[in-house]
Write a structure and sequence with these properties.
Layout lengths: L5 H24 L3 E4 L4 E6 L3 E9 L5 E9 L4 E7 L4 E2 L2 E4 L12 E10 L6 E11 L4 E14 L3 E6 L3 E4 L5 E10 L4 E8 L5 E6 L8 E4 L4 E9 L7 E11 L2 E11 L5 E4 L6 E5 L3 E10 L5 E9 L5 E4 L3 E5 L5 E8 L7 E10 L4 E11 L2 H27 L1
Parallel strand pairs: 2-10, 12-19, 21-28
Antiparallel strand pairs: 1-3, 3-8, 4-7, 4-9, 5-6, 5-8, 9-10, 11-13, 13-17, 14-16, 14-18, 15-17, 18-19, 20-22, 22-26, 23-25, 23-27, 24-26, 27-28
Length: 401
């Protein structure tokens, strides 16, 4: 067999390399849908739930509606694709077209794969298949392997809260989010219980419902989200209040502690020592006025600013436009000066004096009566004197005749 010259082999190799370089992007460009997960194989204990992040991307130039399914679920497992918070099973998503020039891409969805085992699941490898399909027939598939160890995860019922300590102002209702997990191996109905300080009202609601419940029915291996509302009694002071919530079904029970941190109430009160909200000023002259500011709440206020709403041309000057702190039940005087314009027409005017902090504010309307200026009073008196003198002169002349 005749051997080909080296130059022929070189040309063939270059041709194949160029064809591969050209065709590779074409293959990538032909991919319309992609589904990825950072973890494709995990190991857990028996009875342990599996949660893995999942991303679905539309790589085509048109928007796509994508159906999601898990056709391959090992025996003894339940599996869903869901949104993590709030928890919601997702079966179909809408993805916009890929725009390589856009700063923020909206052609992908961040989801979560969650698989829950029953107590009968055996140790060993278990494989799940997740499919994504567009209306046009484009598909993407992902296989996730879960290795179950020989040790059984803790059974019974468990209750957990992501944020067991919540702060709020007095008079505000607290809302804790808790998850109840049934790992008993049986379908059970649990009674919902609570222990709270005197005067507090505790209620339970399902995660996606506004109806209060006192029991929940749960299948084995399932997790139920609950909202626990805690309403403090009127006038409760600042402090930390412990609350215990529990679930119980026969001899099976679990409990956990929550803490409601009451930070106090916030209220600013503006007024005067006499209760009167009116004053008199002379046009063109600064007139002093004193107001009282008080903290009507139960927590300290900080960074209080004072300002005035006034007619055009008026001036209101505060002795201090800012107060660093104000403790509860500690009234303080605020001195200000009010100046009406020189040409202000005598009569009644309205001013607004306000105090504001980040947490509370108050304002009052002040009625100001403008009096005639002293100069114009003397001018008027001089005119009267001149007129009287003129009349006197006339009378004297008439008497001589």
């Amino acid at each position: 067999m005749k051997r080909l010259p080296f130059t022929v082999w070189l040309r063939m190799a270059l041709l194949l390399a160029v064809m591969g370089w050209v065709l590779a992007p074409a293959a990538v460009a032909g991919q319309q849908l992609r589904m990825t997960a950072p973890f494709l194989s995990v190991a857990v204990d028996r009875g342990e739930e599996v949660k893995l992040p999942l991303t679905v991307e539309n790589l085509s130039g048109t928007a796509q509606t994508v159906a999601l399914s898990i056709p391959s679920v090992p025996e003894g497992w339940t599996a869903v694709v869901e949104r993590d918070f709030p928890r919601l099973e997702v079966r179909q998503i809408y993805l916009t077209a890929l725009d390589v020039e856009a700063e923020e891409q909206t052609n992908k969805a961040e989801l979560q794969f969650r698989a829950q085992p029953t107590r009968g699941v055996k140790p060993g490898g278990h494989t799940f298949t997740i499919n994504a399909t567009t209306e046009g027939g484009a598909t993407a598939s992902l296989r996730i392997a879960v290795f179950v160890g020989g040790e059984e995860a803790s059974g019974g019922v468990n209750i957990e809260a992501q944020f067991p300590v919540l702060p709020a102002a007095s008079g505000t209702a607290f809302e804790f989010k808790v998850d109840v997990r049934n790992d008993t191996g049986e379908d059970l109905t649990f009674e919902l219980l609570s222990v709270a300080p005197e005067g507090w009202q505790i209620g339970f609601e399902p995660e996606f419902d506004r109806k209060q419940v006192s029991t929940i029915s749960m299948k084995s291996g399932r997790t139920q989200g609950l909202k626990v509302s805690a309403i403090p009694p009127p006038g409760v002071g600042a402090g930390t209040f412990p609350i215990t919530v529990a679930v119980r079904s026969g001899d099976v029970e679990a409990e956990m502690g929550l803490q409601a941190v009451v930070t106090g109430t916030y209220d600013i009160l503006l007024g005067t020592a006499t209760g009167r909200l009116n004053t008199k000023v002379t046009a063109g002259q600064a007139s002093p006025f004193t107001m009282i500011v008080a903290n009507g709440g139960s927590a300290q206020l900080s960074d209080i600013n004072f300002f005035a709403g006034k007619p055009e041309g008026w001036q209101v000057t505060f002795s201090s436009e800012r107060m660093d702190t104000l403790d509860p039940q500690e009234p303080r005087e605020i001195n200000l000066e009010i100046t009406a314009p020189d040409k202000a027409i005598p009569g009644d005017y309205s001013l607004t004096i306000a105090a504001s902090s980040m947490l509370a504010s108050d304002d009052v309307e002040l009625r100001v009566t403008v009096l005639a200026t002293t100069v114009w009073g003397w001018v008027g008196l001089a005119i009267v004197v001149v007129v009287l003198a003129a009349l006197g002169g006339v009378l004297v002349r008439l008497g001589r005749r």
